[in-house]
Amino acid sequence: MTITPTPDLLIKGGTLLDAETGAEKQADILIRDGKISAIGSDLDGAGAPEFDAAGKFVSMGWMDMHVHLREPGFEHKETIDTGCRAAAFGGFTAVACMPNTNPPIHTRDVVEFIIERAEGTPVDVHPIACVSKHRKGESLAEMADLAEGGAVAFSDDGDPVQDTGLMRHALEYSRMLNKPIINHEEELPLGPKGHMHEGEVSTRLGLPGIPTISEEIMIARDILLAEYTGGHVHVAHISTAGAIDLVRQAKAKGLPVTTEVCTHHFTLTDEEVEKRDFDTNTKMHPPLRTAADIEAVKEGLRDGTIDVICTDHAPHASFEKEVEYVAAPFGILGLETAWGLTGREIIAAGVLSMQDAVQKLTVAPREILNLPIPVVEEGADANLTIFDATTEWTFEKDHIHSKSTNTPFVGDKMVGKAWATYNKGQLVDNS
Fold it and tell me: Which of 58, 60, 264, 329 is most exposed, with the fewest beta carbons within 10 Å of its own?
């Protein structure tokens, strides 16, 4: 992967994909000073560097609305710079980062620090601020000030907003601010010391489990609160069949409820914990569920219940993961493998068309976060991803651009590749 300041660039021979309509057309794109100067056939770059996009698609830049960049405070796991490199390799020109940093993103200065640190990267970074001060779930953070500083949503991710009264007030404020509340949906007393999905495998392995009902009860509560307050609830990393059905019912009623799914939750089941002999790279939160839950996820993607594909990119240092299963932190990397897994498990399997999958990585997350949607037209800032959905390749350790290496997918076949991104006048070439 190379990252090069390239204010002028000619992208030759690609197929332009309109992520909003699914329309396609073959054309060159000429970029001058970071803006799209011309779109047409057989364009003359007048000496500008060229990128050969023949046989590839070009869309607006992709966005992952659920990542952990760890900075400030946990730079031994990841930094904003390394996280953005991982994102760019995965085809993303934008990410929204969660607030479980140290200090947490619960004051405006931390929001502004993150935005400033990301300025020189080829990725737009949008901070998600805390719902509660210090993420302790006791009192609301200064939500209006955080929003003015650049926060695009509010979450205590990693921990649920357990206090129902606090969640009610958060939704009331968020409605006024036109920002969603993204909740980690888990009723903690139902699985306070769980390490994997509660079921046959956890029983066989003797590991405390996290039951599906702990996710579903919290989602049911939040749907009722969304109906009562009119505030927008976004269900983070949905993982169970029952949870998906609850969101489906909420949407049928027209309630302001949206949701996302992580790539690992439509790829791996809880059986991997046993198959991989307690490999801690199978430990994430919410946990890997059952094959029936994966089928429900796919149906939720197919029928539109699930709005967004994301990663919950969660880097941890090797010394933190290379411990006994019950002592390891939850989480795996996701940015570098997101498209390859989507291509393999969702597009090639016929769950979604390539066009619909791209929509869930581009338009949908920005609509939920009320962010401007990039356009591929003359005069617009160039914010582009160049990709295909058919290239077969093997994900190896040298494809990891995160600072950490905690992924179960090294050695796995991927289908579909992000070849390049262009954003903020920078070309990221992954070819």
Answer: 329
Query: Per residue in 336-358, pLDDT tens?
Result: 999 999 999 999 999 999 999 99
Where are the strands (E) in 230-292, listed by range? 233-235, 257-262
Whether the link from the prior residue into 208 is cis, omega within 30° of 0, is no
Q: Which of 18, 270, 293, 312 is catalytic?
A: 312
pLDDT at 99: 98
Beta carbons of 237 and 68 less than 8 angstroms apart: no
Sign of CA dihedral 35, 37, 42, 44: negative
Mean pLDDT taken over the chain: 98
- 312 catalytic per annotation: yes
Is 0.90 topped by the overall pTM?
A: yes
CB 198 within 8 A of CB 287: no
Which residues are within 8 A (CB) of 192 and not within 5 positions of it... i.e. 6 or more apart? none
- Sign of the torsion angle spanned by Cα atoms 253, 259, 263, 266: negative
Domains in the chain (CATH in brackets) are: 2-57+378-429 (2.30.40.10), 61-368 (3.20.20.140)
